[in-house]
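Problem 12. The chain below contains 84 residues. Write out its predicted structure in C-alpha cell notation.
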Amino acid sequence: MNTKTPKTTKEKKILKATKDTNLAKLVWEHPDTAEVLTDYGLHCVGCFASTFDTIEAGCKVHGMSDDDITELIDRINEVIEFKE
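Solution.
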C-alpha cells in the first residue's frame, strides 16, 4: 500500500499554514509540525480524517476556539519558518 501523498506539477509546497491548510499535506511536507499539532490535542495527524480535514476543521472537531486556532497556526508557521 502506497501511503505517500502524490505530487503534481500544479501543487505548491506549503510555505505558510492557514486555517484552510490540509492537515495531511502539512505534516507530509513539514513533519516537525506533527509535534505542535499533538501538543494542541490534535492527535488526528495519523488519522485517516487528516487526509481531507483542514487545520480549522480538525480544531473545531476538538472544540478549539478561534483564538486557539490562531495561536496554533502561528506556532505551526514558526516551525515552518524557523524549523524549531
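Discussion. The chain is about 45% helix and 0% strand. Students who got a different answer should revisit the alignment rule from Section 12.3.
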